[in-house]
Amino acid sequence: GQNIDQPTEMTATEGAIVQINCTYQTSGFNGLFWYQQHAGEAPTFLSYNVLDGLEEKGRFSSFLSRSKGYSYLLLKELQMKDSASYLCADRGSTLGRLYFGRGTQLTVWP
Amino acid sequence: NAGVTQTPKFQVLKTGQSMTLQCAQDMNHEYMSWYRQDPGMGLRLIHYSVGAGITDQGEVPNGYNVSRSTTEDFPLRLLSAAPSQTSVYFCASRSTGNTEAFFGQGTRLTVV
């Protein structure tokens, strides 16, 4: 795990679909989290993937490919309230640690 | 449920002062961590603990101390505050295994 990379900023319009990508180091990987963080607030959990494939939760879905060291968060039917920073985090191999990427700031325009 | 409680929410310190940021969780989680968040830097791990009596350093431990005398509490001590420690600090806890972390509401610290 670790060496997490995700885009710094993305923009989209209301009602659209956006995909936020995250890449990580495959050695020592033990699972990948996505968090949402609104400005001035604490991060909140969105999803967790440890096996390959797509996990769907309402308008949000998360995908994982362990062999490629790649994950994405898919947000459908975007709403203004989805404007936030989205953080990708790798569980890694060290007990108790989570490794966070720098976050992707998503702005949703009307 | 209270979850993870951090105090204070805001603090202004003068350079050289010391203080303790408090963090308590009521979910009986084994793992607790302290992060700092600066613009453009994401969440950087300061110290973490995998259980009472066990702590370890993260990416940016210099200038900070921690202790874990109980499962519930994980205070973060700034020994001699510096302007570079101006940041937003988050405490998080999670249980063992493949579980998500729960975050406190953050402490906004300014060192002048």
Q: How would you characterize this protein structure?
A:
The complex is a heterodimer of chains A (about 110) and B (about 110). Helices cover about 0% and strands about 50% of the residues of chain A. Chain A is built from no helices and ten strands. Chain A has strands at about 10-15, 20-25, 30-35, 45-50, 55, 60-65, 70-75, 85-90, 100, 105-110. In chain A, the strands form two sheets. In chain A, strands 1, 3, 4, 8, 9 and 10 form a six-stranded mixed sheet that branches. Chain A has a four-stranded antiparallel sheet with strand order 2-7-6-5, with no helix packed on it. In chain A, strand 5 and strand 6 (about 60-65) form a beta hairpin. Chain B is mainly beta and about 110 residues long. Chain B has strands spanning about 5, 10-15, 20-25, 30-40, 40-50, 55, 65, 75-80, 85-95, 100-105, 105-110. In chain B, the strands form two sheets. In chain B, strands 2, 4, 5, 6, 9, 10 and 11 form a seven-stranded mixed sheet that branches. A four-stranded antiparallel sheet of chain B has the order 1-3-8-7, with no helix packed on it. Chain B is globular, with a radius of gyration of 13 Å. The mean pLDDT of chain B is about 95. At the A-B interface, strand 4 and strand 9 of A face strand 4, strand 5 and strand 10 of B.
Task: Please describe the structure with a list of short key phrases separated by commas or semicolons.
heterodimer; A: 110 residues; mainly beta; 6-stranded mixed β-sheet; globular; B: mainly beta; 7-stranded mixed β-sheet; 4-stranded antiparallel β-sheet; 0% helix; 52% strand
